[in-house]
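Render this sequence as a predicted structure.
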Amino acid sequence: MSDEAQRALIVKNATSLLLENGYGRTTTDGVAARCRISKQTLYRHFPGKHALIAAIVDSHRQSMLALPGDYDGLPLDRALERIFRTDIDPQADRERVALLTLVLLEAQQYPELEDILQRHGGDRSRAELAKWLGAQCRRGSMKIEDIDGAAQILMDMIFGAVVFKLGRGVQWPGRKMRNAHIRQCVAIFLGGVVPRRP
C-alpha cells in the first residue's frame, strides 16, 4: 500500500472511531488497532493525536467547501453552488453534520479541538475561497476590493443557516431548503460583485 493510500485509510478509520467514541476516548492505540497497523506506522504518518485530528478536519473540509477544484467551464453562480456542495449526497451530508456536531460539543471540554477546527477547517477554507475569488477577479468576471473579507462574508452568509442547539447538536435545514438558501446567498453575493455591463 502506498503512503498516500495508507494515510487515507488511517484517516477514514480514525474518523469512524472519533464519531463512535468522541475525542476524549479516541486514542492512537485504538486507531492503530482499527487499522491493523503498528503504532510506529501510525506515528510515521501522524506524529500524534492532534496531527491525526487535524488530518480528519482537513479531509472533512472538502465536504463543506469543495476547493480546490476546477469550475472554469461553469457560470459563476453554478460554480459557487458546487463549491458550497449543493451536490452532496445524503450520506456524506449526515457524516459532515455528525463530525461538526461532535467537534462543537467536545470543544467545550477540549479547547484544542476548536483551535484545530479553526486552523485546519475554517481558516483554510476561507483561504481557498479567497484564492478562487481572486482568480475570478483577475479574469474580470468579478470586482472585489477586499477578497479575504468577501470570502468571509460569503461563508458567513451560507453557513449562517447552521444552528447549534445544545443537546441536539448541529441543525441545518433539509437538503431542499439548504440548497435554496445557498442559491439565494450566491445570488445576493454575485449581485454585488458582478461588473455592470454598459
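Summary. The first strand starts at residue 163 and ends at 165. The chain is about 70% helix and 5% strand.
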